[in-house]
Amino acid sequence: MPQRGRPRGFDVDEALERAVEVFWRQGYEGASVTDLTEAMGINKPSLYAAFGGKEELFRKAVARYAEKDMGYARDAFAQPTAYEVVATLLRENVIAVTRTDRPAGCLSIQGGTSCSTDNAPIAGFLAASRLGGEGALADRLARAVAEGDLPAHADPVALARFIMIVTEGQAVHAAAGVSREDLRQAAEIALAGFAAASGARLPEQATRPV
Amino acid sequence: MPQRGRPRGFDVDEALERAVEVFWRQGYEGASVTDLTEAMGINKPSLYAAFGGKEELFRKAVARYAEKDMGYARDAFAQPTAYEVVATLLRENVIAVTRTDRPAGCLSIQGGTSCSTDNAPIAGFLAASRLGGEGALADRLARAVAEGDLPAHADPVALARFIMIVTEGQAVHAAAGVSREDLRQAAEIALAGFAAASGARLPEQATRPV
DNA sequence: AGCATTCTGTACCGAGCGGTACGTATCCGA
DNA sequence: TCGGATACGTACCGCTCGGTACAGAATGCT
Question: Which keywords belong to this entry (chains A, B) (predicted)?
């Protein structure tokens, strides 16, 4: 039973993509349902039928954002060494928050760091999802310690926190209009700090015989 | 002519203080005029008479916040060496964004990183004021280069940007509920990164004979 | 005492909010 | 060809938004 009744007049994925951009630019509270439907090219009842409501749409938008716009994190985690994981993460983050074909910054922060009391769950949801990413990075760095890639005294949780703090700051900065090249400089400083604090082997040291 | 007509029934400064906290917790758009007047203990016409409107109140709240809650920045800039300037800034920022008698995070970010199109100027205003602080730090670090406190190859603008990115990330993290001690760890990693990237003399090196 | 001046509280404004009822259009299966 | 099912557009719901009109209350000045 592929479909019964009148078929949808719009592409759900494409509409969700537009919603991502509106939420990204204007935040959850700053994006009205009218703003959303206009950008999505649909009417309000279609939005409610297809997505359930503004809050559900937002959660789906965040999920899609994590899937598509933060895909670089998966690639970064797959790097062989902790240094390369972090270097990839920081550098790809700079690119992601300064794409010209996307709003500046990061949906996870632009979506709303603070909310009215009614919408407090939204800010909490975003904060939790950010901290989830931090936990994943900490796990990856812990693996690096277990593998001997990072020294035993390195603190994966603290290091992951530092990296995530930098990426969040980058996103805030990008939303303020700071250029990609300027953010890249900051990423390199952060990377140097990570290397110093973690005792990570640099790529040169890893590939070149000591 | 000290006062003519009926005297004010509330303390303007105290009311502004309450407004700061509401904006800080809920953001500009998330804070309704009713939320504000209830916290300030006044009625709407009093708010409009005393402060001019919601947006003017917000700008005054931000000014007061910068004066009182970011006063540590002035102290930090007065430190004798670049290393101590940055160390004080990072450490005091951690304390400021995790005060138990204040909302978590920083008004300059919680106030709103994104807004509805109508309120776009608010996000721009906050972004500009943050970048203003970054410029002041860059100036202070440039002075350190001129004084020989930082090596000639150090880039004050890039370093200031990195530090501000970290403090912004700390504020986002604090708003997510991360503890003061956890943020302090991150601040020390950032400080190490600053020292490495700038070539700053550490306090020990500065006081101890080489 | 009386008046101009200023502040206070109530009650209200038009507009926009998120969300929905309902009649119509368009599909599949029988 | 017709009925069940689904999606569509219009027009509307109650509510809250930021902001204000207005009348009464409290002061200083004369």
Answer: DNA-binding, Transcription, Transcription regulation
Q: What is the pLDDT of residues B74-90, one digit of tens each?
A: 999 999 999 999 999 99
Would you say B97 and B166 are in contact if contact means Cβ atoms under 8 Å apart? no
Q: Provide residues 24-53 of A with CB closer than 7 Å to any strand C atom.
A: 31-35, 44-45, 48, 53
B37 φ, ψ (degrees, to nearest 5) = -65, -35
Question: Do A21 and A77 fall into the same domain?
Answer: no
Domain residue limits at B52: 12-65
Residues A136, A78 share a domain: yes
- Nearest chain B Cα distance for residue A70, angstroms: 18
Distance B64 CA to D18 C1' (A): 23
Question: In this structure, what CATH number is given to the domain that contains residue B121?
Answer: 1.10.357.10
CB contact under 8 A, A35 and B116: yes
List chain A residues with CB under 8 Å of B185.
Answer: 155, 158, 161-162
Longest dimension (CA), chain B: 70
Residue A209 is predicted with a pLDDT of 46
A-chain residues within 8 Å CB-CB of B178? 131, 161
> Chain B partners of A159 at a C-beta cutoff of 8 Å?
189
Could you tell me which chain A residue has the CA closest to the CA of B163?
A186
Task: Name the stretches of chain A with pLDDT < 70.
Answer: 1-2, 204-210
Cα separation values, A160 from A36, B41, B192, Å? 35, 43, 16
The pLDDT of residue B203 is 84
Could you tell me if A86 and A23 lie in one domain?
no
- The answer to whether position B210 is within a domain reads no
Do B138 and B37 fall within a single domain? no
Residues B51 and B115 in one domain: no
